[in-house]
Sequence to fold (718 residues):
Amino acid sequence: MQTLNVALGDRSYPIHIGRNLLGNPQLILPYLKRKQVAIVTNTTVAPLYLQKLAQPLRDSGVSVIEVILPDGEAYKNSETLNLIYDALLQNRCERNTTLVALGGGVIGDLTGYAAATYLRGVPFIQVPTTLLAQVDSSVGGKTGINHPLGKNMIGAFYQPQVVLADIATLETLPSRELAAGLAEVIKYGLIRDIDFFEWLESNMPLLNALNTDVMSYAIYRSCQNKAEVVAVDERESGERALLNLGHTFGHAIENAMGYGVWLHGEAVAAGTMMAADLSRRMGWLTVGDVSRMAAIFKAANLPVTPPDLGAEKYLDLMGLDKKVVDGKIRLVLQQGIGKSVVTGDYDAEALNATLSMSC
Amino acid sequence: MQTLNVALGDRSYPIHIGRNLLGNPQLILPYLKRKQVAIVTNTTVAPLYLQKLAQPLRDSGVSVIEVILPDGEAYKNSETLNLIYDALLQNRCERNTTLVALGGGVIGDLTGYAAATYLRGVPFIQVPTTLLAQVDSSVGGKTGINHPLGKNMIGAFYQPQVVLADIATLETLPSRELAAGLAEVIKYGLIRDIDFFEWLESNMPLLNALNTDVMSYAIYRSCQNKAEVVAVDERESGERALLNLGHTFGHAIENAMGYGVWLHGEAVAAGTMMAADLSRRMGWLTVGDVSRMAAIFKAANLPVTPPDLGAEKYLDLMGLDKKVVDGKIRLVLQQGIGKSVVTGDYDAEALNATLSMSC
Fold:
């Protein structure tokens, strides 16, 4: 087991990475203020992992409330959030009850937001069971829900007590979701870590095959990269925006296609290629760089061609994005592999050309 | 105009107290990150004060969005919260849009919670128009909404940029609501400030008559007392619980009677007399102390007799309260006038006696 410390002052917490961590209550017990937890999971994950997590806790004298939600991004909304609140209130959960998120990013975001807001804040622990959640939503404290008018519009910054990233849970992950997680792994290389990018180019077959050591290292280094960015910019005012490479375009894709039709990581991959296309048009990336980016996404079984929505629809959807500053759309673009920048200083014509074509 | 600084490190903010502050945009402009505000108010306050606040801002070049909600505690729920989110999203409000709460405690709590959670946090300013909101919800950063199973169950701690307590707005306040605000003012004297309590005993007629100097001083000293408590205990783990004198009983009364039937301050007054009754049964207050407390509440036109719900219903409703620690109901009780304590160390029989009778 490897452990990474996310340094955030008095909100610091460890991420444990390894195989079969779920069944080890010693990783959780030290963080409980009271021997009561509410495990929040979904109908897909519950039959696979809920009792593996819950039973050892019960055997250690912990009272466990189970909250099983419907599965899918479409349920990341206020109605599902209310199901969590209802369960907590019906069980008279108090400020020292710990919420445990067992599942992917949707479960993590919903549970973290419920923890941030139930009784104005209760402790929570994340047990991410998808690669995406392990390398992305387990670091950074972003929690929240979608709104009919936009993704992640309602939320809070709220940090967990501890994160358990159990590699064994990836064995039941559908291949599309594994690929979607790899999109975010690749992103860390692209934005700030060319050595990691090149390591990923060499090791993609082993990652696809779920090799334990290689996957553990990829998760560790991804979380480390994200933690370094978040540590200097917890509230997303500056450098943290780099983590949104491909996301402004990607959110527009997800929104237009209907949440859940494209997986988040798939939209990020195609969105990153749109950012690459715009960067190339600005003269910041070579054709060779763009090809290399397309190659690694393809090796990870990810889409590199965005849907043709037309420029107008893209712009409209992108205008709702949180990264808009004073009405000007700032984008994360590439100035070489391993170096992203956040900038509003790009050519509007070039952006239109990128949005108008399948790049 | 008097100004009190609420010291909370990098979340410190000033409270300005005086007459006719609403129409002075210079008190607001320095805090805007961008010249755009969304003023959230209700159907009662809007015709009285919305344009007095909005027009001078517009004249100063600020874009003003108006969000007018239905009035009443019954609307402090997720449906009304969504009306705020909808307005912000429809107007494409961004992270540098400032929310302004113009109204009483319900508007402040709803708006503050919307600000805490919209795009994971936008700035907000409070312009409380009731005495209760000026002396209570304008200090401490508590925001949130009710849930069908309990009051204030969902929320966040979130501080405003600045608070404007405009005495002139109290002239249109119904007399029952003025009295409800005085319940909280009296509370500060009871829990920690006997000098203020005695000043209030002498000045109650002038407070009832809305004398400007006397009312300004009462608001200033109330906020100062609350700010001192909150400064050492922002997250409500210890001393801050003293502020809940009368509230555990009071919330049970509000809940049982239906939110909004008893005003919050009325329930707190009667709840404080229940706490006084229990304190007397424990030998911590004299009969004379209890009479003195009843006299000041009566002078402020407040009820001192709680509804007879029966002990069982009181206990049931109190069990849901946030102040429950490990299943044991901790209460704020009196050990003399000007000295409250938070304790679970009272006699269960005495509590039952208090709950079983009109005290």
Notes: Chain B has two domains: 2-172, 190-356. The mean pLDDT of chain B is 92.
